[in-house]
Amino acid sequence: MSKRGAVTRTEQKERTRRTLLDTARRLFATRGYAGVGLAEIVSESGVTKGALYHHFSGKTDLFRAVLEQVQREVADRVAAAADAQDDPWAQLKAGCAAFVAAGADPRVQRIMLIDGPAVLGWNEWRAIDEATSVRHLTEALTVLVADGRIPAQPVAPLARLLSGAMNEAALWLAQSAPGDLADTQAALSRLLDSLHA
């Protein structure tokens, strides 16, 4: 087999995987994990059931991959917002505001905050969250404690408290009026300012 043939096969496998992820993500985001069957994902993706099982062991494995993709994208948005600032304190505040804004998107909420813990279980969902969002938050808080801009204290519990508050705010925003995002971000800003030494 030619090298070009091997590349084409590899590209096709990746394209199939992306198609499955994109289709599953759209369906999970709009109807939730329980409202979507594998047959529908296969049909809408235009692939065979065998192709799905080549890439994923089943619906839960496919959902896990979608959740990890969403978590990475949210973490990237948070990091980009933080990196746009020069000052570590401004980075923390911008990153937290970006997280709440991302979490306010109903498509993100459904996958990341509602179905994620329910489908995968708290421990597995938490491990994925720890590897992305909480990691960035912990790094930012560690810098601020080391600089004396937040009073000396263990960072791990503070990061979990802030993460929990932001997750809860994002879930609340799903049921609230559109203007509540600005009020929520202002409240978050005041909460963070109260930590400042």
UniProtKB/TrEMBL annotation:
DNA-binding region: 37-56
Gene3D superfamilies in the record: Tetracycline Repressor, domain 2
Record's keyword annotation contains Lipid metabolism: no
Keyword Transmembrane helix: no
Residue ranges annotated for the HTH tetR-type domain, each copy included: 14-74
InterPro entries: Homeodomain-like_sf, HTH-type_TetR-like_transc_reg, HTH_TetR, Rv0078-like_C
Superkingdom to which the source organism belongs: Bacteria
Keywords on record: DNA-binding, Transcription, Transcription regulation
Protein name: TetR/AcrR family transcriptional regulator
